[in-house]
Write a structure and sequence with these properties.
Helices cover 33% and strands 25% of the residues. It has 435 residues and is α+β, with helices and mostly antiparallel strands. The strands form six sheets. Strands 3-2-1-4-5 form a five-stranded parallel β-sheet, sandwiched between helices. It comes from Oerskovia douganii.
């Protein structure tokens, strides 16, 4: 197939890497891969095009000119901007929900409304439009306080804190942040959910649901879950501690009812529904919905998928998931560790040289995915974002995958960088991680 992937991060690199690996795994003819705008790592596997990911007209024109068989939209911003709508209007198969359906991520208040209508178990919440309402909601729920920006915030719009003043300040910052085209600012205050968190990606064609393998990511910047929230500092899969039947429970009680409710509203959701879960003392609860693959969980989930990714994504785009064969998975474990730039997630320093990527990939079972990278005029690889690289390793079990991934991370040289050293540590020792 001719496949165009939209986006420029490690998630998109993971998707392109999976497409490229299909030839190795199945012996099939290689795909013709394209990406817009992509990054230097993606450029080693696909032809890059200097097209804005959020420009639907330009993306549709590019896909038409290429004769693309499938367009895969990675990030949330293009989905909320309606890029998938523009591609479908051009008559091209597209994996990713419409702008209306992507409101499941674009507005937490909308997502809560859908969950309520679908009887999805989730945290109690107050939707607030001013700081006085926020203060009342914080007092009603008590600490720990959970404050969420209603709109897109690149995974960093949530604060969980015991400090009431910090919670109020985050809410005030959310109100002060303009959201073009999104109306008046809204903040969602939720009850705190205890227990370990799990991410489950559920593919849908608007009617049927096909779950992928569960994963767990690490949001805090530093070891022992210290520091501020980030877009994610690492992840692993599978989850040996997860209860039996978890995936089936989530499909039955969460994903399928949500897909049914979206269809009932006339806004069918065709793409990947990211279900963020908390396994609480009172049962499984939904923390959040996203309308795309999560980063960095995608890196480990796709590393274990043996079914050709291109085939299942095209089936979802065409409304053919009901007849799709059962997905096949490797028994291996996968771990990814994010190498972040100096200052991340606050004042990020860009432009530092990166070396050691090839040496890292020389390790058994290791590959490196680019997130925030660029090439300078001399061809030197440099940092160009907060999360710079995702080092991924597979192993017979989590302990082996951890040894391999950290051996790979040790080869990477990025001045001032930092990474967590405890990704999957507790799980490898047979314990759940309460994030």
């Amino acid at each position: 197939m001719k496949i165009l992937v939209i986006g420029s991060g490690a998630r998109e690199h993971a998707i392109v890497h999976s497409f490229a690996q299909e030839t190795v795994v199945t012996g099939a003819e290689p795909h013709e891969l394209h990406a817009a705008p992509g990054n230097p790592g993606i450029g080693e596997l696909a032809t890059l095009h200097a097209v804005s990911a959020v420009d639907g007209e330009a993306v549709a024109a590019l896909a038409t000119r290429l004769g693309a068989d499938l367009v895969v939209i990675g990030p949330e911003a293009p989905l909320v901007a309606g890029v998938a709508d523009a591609v479908r209007a051009a008559g091209i198969d597209c994996f990713g929900p419409s702008a209306e359906a992507a409101a499941l991520e674009g507005s937490k208040a909308f997502a809560k409304d859908v969950m309520a209508a679908a009887s999805v178990p989730t945290a109690l919440a107050h939707v607030c439009t001013d700081i006085d309402q926020v203060a009342d909601a914080l007092d009603a729920f008590g600490a720990p306080y959970v404050v969420k920006d209603d709109g897109l915030a690149a995974g960093k719009g949530v604060v969980v804190t015991d400090d009431r003043q910090e919670a109020l300040e985050h809410a005030q910052a959310c109100f002060a942040t303009p959201r073009p085209g999104a109306g008046d600012p809204v903040v969602v205050i939720e009850e705190y959910l205890d227990g370990p968190e799990v991410s489950l990606f559920c593919l849908s064609d608007g009617t049927s649901v096909v779950p992928l393998a569960p994963a767990q990511d690490f949001k805090r910047a530093f070891d022992a879950d210290a520091g501020p929230n980030t877009g994610g500092m690492g992840a692993y899969s599978p989850l040996p501690w997860a209860p039996d039947g978890l995936t089936e429970e989530v499909v039955t009680r969460v994903a399928q009812p949500t897909i049914d409710e979206m269809a009932r509203r006339g806004t069918p959701f065709a793409g990947v529904l990211y279900v963020g879960l908390a396994l609480t003392s009172r049962g499984t609860r939904v923390v959040e919905f996203n309308a795309r693959f999560g980063d960095p969980e995608t890196q480990v989930v796709l590393a274990r998928l043996r079914t050709p990714l291109s085939a299942v994504l095209r089936a979802a785009a065409r409304g053919e998931l009901a007849d799709f064969p059962r997905l096949r998975w490797s028994d291996d474990a996968a771990v990814t560790v994010v190498v972040a730039a100096h200052g991340y997630p606050s004042a990020v320093r860009s432009g530092d040289p990166i070396t050691g990527v090839e040496a890292a990939e020389g390790g058994e079972g290791v590959h490196v995915l680019h997130a925030g990278t660029t090439l300078d005029d001399e061809g030197v690889l440099r940092s160009a974002g907060g999360r710079v690289l995702s080092v991924v390793a597979r192993g017979e079990d989590l302990a082996e995958a951890r040894r391999r991934v950290y051996a790979g991370v040790d080869q990477v040289v990025l001045p001032g960088s930092h990474h967590r050293t405890d990704i999957a540590e507790k799980a490898a020792a047979g314990r759940a991680v309460a994030l």
